[in-house]
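Chapter review: from sequence to fold.
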Amino acid sequence: MPLNPRLSVVLPLLLGAALSVQGCQTLHQAGSSVASVFHKQQPPPPPPALTPEELTEKGMEALRQHDWAAARTAFEPAAEAGDTRAQVALGSMYFTGLGVVRDYADAAHWFTPAAAKGDAEAEYNLGLMSNLGGTGILQDHVAAADWFGKAAAQGHVSAAYHLGLLYQDGNGVPQDLARSAAWFRQAAAGGSGPAMTALGAMYDQGRGVEQDERQAMIWYRRAAEAGDTEAMRLIGEAYYDGVGLPQNSALAREWLQRAAAGGNDEAATRLSMPEAGSSTGDTVPAAVRARAASPVPAR
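The token string follows.
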């Protein structure tokens, strides 16, 4: 049967279109296969870089896990990028020798830019290093007073206490017992046990404040409640000598035992002495006088 004239025209076109579609599908499948193979051969993209803040948090977590190497690895790039917390943390590691060789020069290298931005902890630590001197850092009480003053002005409790010690002894600043007592009072208000003890000793001797044995015992008791073993020892001495408190050997031993249990060597030595003749016969116990006349050891 002869083809319809119309079909004889349309059929070749349909066949050509079908072959063209099939060819395109074949080419597409082949291209997809090549692209798939190429894609599988490429390495995965690197993870996004951590921000300095994220690195610092990672370092802090490593510190909590006592992984000093990981902490240093995280802190270093963050500190280099200018993160203040990382700079202080890395400086503290070098200052204390935590996971690194202790080196005051390296500690100062990291504390200094943080202090320049007004970080009170960095200022305080620079004050400590200047006050003590050490590897790579010359002892400089004037610089120590300056750094402690900057930190104390921001409410740093330990800085206020150490500044009080400098004014008490006239190291780096003119001796000024009234200012010393004022800085001790500020630190005591912030909860510093050693500052409470130092202030109590000043009241006991009337140095920088009006002498007041009652106030002295109030501050000693506050310091003892804050865990200061030196205050515990001084309360024990006061009970032994009957100065500021009624003489009571039993309570004296109880307070000295508390101080000795907390690691106070002077209290342990006092306990080993016979009770007879314990009173000095003076108006102020020698131990209290010595405490008032010299700096309170840093805790």
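Two observations follow directly from the output. The CA atoms of residues 3 and 9 lie 10 Å apart. The domain at 176-299 is CATH 1.25.40.10 (Serine Threonine Protein Phosphatase 5, Tetratricopeptide repeat).
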